[in-house]
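Moderator note: this is an archived Q&A kept for reference. The question asked for a predicted structure of one protein chain; the sequence and the answer are reproduced below.
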Amino acid sequence: MIPKIIVKGTAKGNIMKTTNPINFLGAVDKITGIIRDDKHDKFEKSIKNSILVFPHGIGSSVGAYTIYSLKKNNSAPSAMICTDADLSVVSGCALANIPMVIVTKEKFDSLQDGEEFSLDSESIKTL
């Protein structure tokens, strides 16, 4: 399976990778982009301008509004890469025009936290 483009676009940044799902409504501060869930492995880290790599979102559909708010507050990630598409993250990325791609588990595993990364949905087959 080749990667699936959910929201087209280009982005550059350092990968912020977690193997834990993210609840955008409950875990991410929509003003600062800092993860505020003290049980999350990225607690107190900012997702701002990162290439956010995580398996999928969890929680309320209102998480889509949080993603949109992150973008409006200039605290959103530059792009999101997941292994599964859930409605709240897909909707949020579409509303906020944040590039989003779904990748295989093998590709997900190969992406390294902190790695500098460029995403271009037009050349997605290289991902």
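Archived answer notes: The mean pLDDT is 94.
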